[in-house]
Specification:
Order of helices and strands: EEEEEEEEEEEHHEEEEEHEEHHH
Radius of gyration: 22 Å
Helix content: 10-25%
Oligomer: single chain
Structural class: alpha+beta
CATH architecture of the largest domain: Alpha-Beta Complex
Low-confidence stretches: 347-354
CATH topology of the largest domain: Naphthalene 1,2-dioxygenase Alpha Subunit, Chain A, domain 1
Number of domains: 2
Length: 354
């Protein structure tokens, strides 16, 4: 089961062009996205109400969308406004329209009760046009349940092993030292210092040591936001291992989103970069390619894990100290699912929900 009353990342903003349409699937719901002439994005059910053909195979006509199977035309609000050879349009001739918000660098779609869609729940992220940051974007499709990817991001101890030659190189502390884990209203916060860390592949010189302040939030339904910051050695002790308040030597940017497509497939969006003052275009390109290599390492182990789980889906996992974050987040998701089950979704019945 998936949380429905949440904002899911459907695409990067640049993926939704001024022309054409974009097909997406989120929590087993087919969507079609497109931009109107004023630039606003429309998100409709990608399933004509007549013979259930995908509207993403249709044709844009102004701000409307015509199904190219039998010609029904739909307005941006999902209502059918034309049926060839038929004057009377039945009241049920409509497709579901989803609340959609373009914010930061992502297109966010609310998958639950439209009456409960609250844009204030969308976390603050960095826009591609923000001059203070440079980053590149990408995505990977997984043959795995989204929760396995979430677990991976909620437990970074794997960096010392899965990424022993990339992101976790020369940093056994990812596995040997536990972060402070704090619950948030719809997520979890992780904070820790990694002291006397060697230089990264993009910051620092051989032989130099730094203190790394590592803090990130992981939010429902699967949003990972972090800005790791490098400081001179001894900074962690000066702050008594508390959060720093002074400017950092270097700040990296990582923004990621896990979007379930189905119970066995997921899309993983990611952005990697740094402050503009810390990295030029060439360095950001190097950081991105290095990080993408690591993300393919994640994909390999998680898809292999999914295959093993599929052989015996009821086999329980053995919890370890590593799992404080994943267990806390799973509990938050269970609470949200319980709350949704107790609150009928008013808008869905009116919009011919699944």
């Amino acid at each position: 089961m998936f949380v429905r009353n949440a904002w899911y990342v459907a695409a990067w903003c640049h993926d939704v062009a001024d022309v054409g349409v974009l097909a997406r699937t989120i929590i087993n719901h087919p969507l079609v996205l497109y931009r109107k002439h004023d630039g606003a994005i429309v998100a409709l059910e990608d399933r004509c109400c007549h013979r259930l053909a995908p509207l993403s195979k249709g044709r844009r006509e102004g701000d409307d969308l015509r199904c190219m199977y039998h010609g029904l035309k739909f307005a941006p609000d999902g209502h059918c406004i034309e049926i060839p050879g038929q004057d009377m349009i039945p009241p049920r001739a409509l497709v579901r329209s989803y609340p959609v918000v373009e914010r930061g660098s992502w297109v966010w779609v609310w998958m639950g009760d439209a009456a409960r869609a609250d844009p204030s729940q969308i976390p603050a992220t960095i826009a591609a046009t923000d001059p203070a940051w440079r980053f590149q974007t990408g995505h990977l499709d997984y043959a795995a349940h989204a929760q396995l990817i979430n677990d991976n991001l909620l437990d970074l101890s794997h960096l010392s092993f899965v990424h022993e030659s990339t992101l976790g190189r020369n940093t056994p502390q990812w596995a040997t030292e536990r972060p402070n884990v704090t619950p948030l209203p719809r997520g979890v916060r992780f904070q820790r210092w990694i002291q006397n860390r060697g230089p990264s592949h993009y910051f620092g010189k051989p032989g130099e040591l730094y203190d790394l302040w590592h803090s990130y939030d992981f939010l429902v339904p699967g949003i990972f936001l972090q800005k790791p910051a490098w400081y001179p050695p001894g900074t962690a002790r000066r702050y008594n291992l508390k959060p720093p308040t002074e400017p950092a030597l270097c700040v990296r940017l990582d923004e990621q989103a896990v979007t379930p497509m189905s119970g066995s497939t997921s899309r993983y969006f990611y952005a990697t970069g740094a402050r503009s003052s810390d990295a030029d275009v060439a360095l950001v390109d190097e950081m991105f390619r290095f990080t993408e290599t690591a993300f393919h390492e994640d994909k390999a182990i998680i898809e292999a894990q999914q295959k093993v789980i599929a052989l015996d889906p009821d086999r329980p996992m053995l919890s370890m100290a590593f799992d404080a974050g994943p267990n806390l987040f799973r509990g938050i998701v269970r609470q949200l699912l319980t709350a949704e089950a107790a609150q009928p979704e008013r808008a869905l019945a009116a919009a011919q929900a699944d």
